[in-house]
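Hello forum,

I keep getting stuck at the same step: I have a sequence, I want structure tokens, and every attempt I make locally crashes halfway through. Rather than fight my setup again tonight, could one of you with a working pipeline run this one for me? It's a single chain of 199 residues.
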Amino acid sequence: MKNKSPVADEAPEAPEAPEAPLRADAARNRQRILAAANEVFLERGADASLDEIAKRAKVGIGTLYRRFPTRDALLAAISDERLLALAEASRARDDTLEPDVSLRLFIEELAAHASHYRGLAVLLGAVLQSGTPGCLAGTEEGRRLLQRAQDAGSVRKDVSPEDLLCVVMAISLAAEQGDASKSRIAHLAGLFLDGVGAR
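Reply #2:
Ran it on my machine without issues. Output:
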């Protein structure tokens, strides 16, 4: 037993030394993949080839899939910081805006984000379910704002968070197909909220 314990103690320590450079390499690869994905998605849309993204990032396709096993996971990672910022900005204006106005602004901002890459609107539901901090924050903020507007009596009680997501996707698709200006997105969001206003 005494002869085995030093070996047992040493076994987990052996791989620890080389892990630090691997982590640094992995972080660099991740950033290169995200930067390349942003470029390629902007050029070709959210359904662009993942092989092309790997080549642009100068990594193997296996490395890309180890970091991001699905297209949705890659899009969620790219969206993460933007969604976190949207949720934070939305919470910060609680004291200055009425609940229905806060909800409308968030819908507009989320729809504008979903039309950032051509084809992202169709994938938005799956992307938001990816579980990244930004996706979780964006989803939770949508639920919170809807509940707040319903509690204030400005939105019908039968409107669900899933309804909101469908509307955001529809607005994004409409913007993607035609005029993607802020005024067009705001107009469409206003039409929806006027239609679901509490009577």
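Confidence is low (pLDDT under 50) at residues 1-22. If your local run keeps crashing, start a new thread with the error log.
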